[in-house]
């Protein structure tokens, strides 16, 4: 698919059909996301695929405060666990007073959703999540961070591709030459 078409087609999908996403497909998406760049190549995250019956149990962790009700019908999730940055990244963060880890995670999330859409799998990045609940669910130590969860599945027949609502180019982009 042409890159522009892919970017226009990728959207936050908030309704999913019953069709399961094959495990191999979910693994392929994660394999591609591993190619994402990160500060000093630190790759400070782990991708947790939650699918099948486990997705049915998991969805409540992205439905906090009554949010994301539609996620009940979602067949798969990828929870991004925040890892420790490499020593050099930690030093860089301190020196530059910049948190690179969330940036790295955001880039990985972008790779996930674009890789998925390119394979015909729809998605939605979710910031509304219960990190404590997710850590418990995944058997991780308390305090483990999951900055983003991504819902994945197939949109039902006829689910519309919405027009993009973005700030005007001139507002979002500045050129200095
Ligand atoms: C960091 C982040 C957190 C988000 N959290 C949620 C969420 O919890 N629930 C939801 O339905 N959409 C969530 N979204 C999706 C945004 O609302 C969506 O990307 C934005 O409105 C643009 O629409 P589009 O993705 O369809 O192009 C999130 C997106 C990002 C990048």
Give, in spatial order, the strands making up the sheet with the most strands.
1-2-4-3
User: Which fold name corresponds to the CATH topology?
Assistant: NADH Oxidase
CATH architecture: 3-Layer(aba) Sandwich
Cα gyration radius (Å): 17 Å
SS-derived structural category: alpha+beta
Question: What is the beta-strand fraction?
Answer: 5-15%
Instruction: Give a count of the beta strands, DSSP E runs of length 2 or more.
Output: 4
3D structure, described in words:
There is one protein chain. The chain has 177 residues and is α+β, with helices and mostly antiparallel strands. It has one domain (3-172): NADH Oxidase (3-Layer(aba) Sandwich). 37% of the residues lie in helices and 14% in strands. It has a four-stranded antiparallel sheet with strand order 1-2-4-3. Helix 2 (23-33) crosses helix 5. The protein binds flavin mononucleotide (FMN). Residues 11-12, 14, 67-68, 124-128, 164 line the site of flavin mononucleotide.
Write the layout of secondary structure elements.
Blueprint: H1 3-9, H2 23-33, E1 45-51, H3 53-58, E2 76-82, H4 87-96, H5 100-118, E3 122-126, H6 131-138, E4 148-153, H7 169-172
Brief descriptors of the model:
globular; NADH Oxidase; four-stranded antiparallel sheet; alpha+beta; 177 residues; binds flavin mononucleotide; 7 helices
């Amino acid at each position: 698919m042409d890159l522009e078409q892919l970017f226009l087609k990728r959207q936050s999908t908030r309704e999913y059909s019953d069709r399961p996403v094959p495990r191999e497909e979910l693994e392929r998406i994660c394999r591609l996301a591993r190619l994402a760049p990160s500060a000093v190549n630190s790759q400070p995250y782990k991708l947790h695929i939650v699918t099948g019956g486990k997705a049915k149990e998991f969805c409540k962790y992205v439905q906090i405060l009554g949010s994301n009700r539609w996620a009940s019908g979602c067949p798969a999730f990828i929870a991004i666990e925040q890892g420790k940055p490499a020593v050099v990244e930690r030093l860089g963060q301190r020196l530059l007073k910049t948190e690179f880890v969330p940036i790295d995670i955001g880039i990985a999330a972008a790779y996930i959703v674009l890789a998925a859409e390119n394979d015909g799998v729809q998605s939605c990045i979710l910031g509304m999540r219960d990190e404590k609940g997710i850590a418990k669910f995944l058997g991780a130590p308390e305090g483990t961070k999951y900055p983003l969860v991504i819902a994945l599945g197939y949109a039902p027949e006829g689910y519309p591709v919405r027009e993009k609502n973005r700030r005007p180019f001139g507002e979002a982009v500045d050129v200095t030459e």
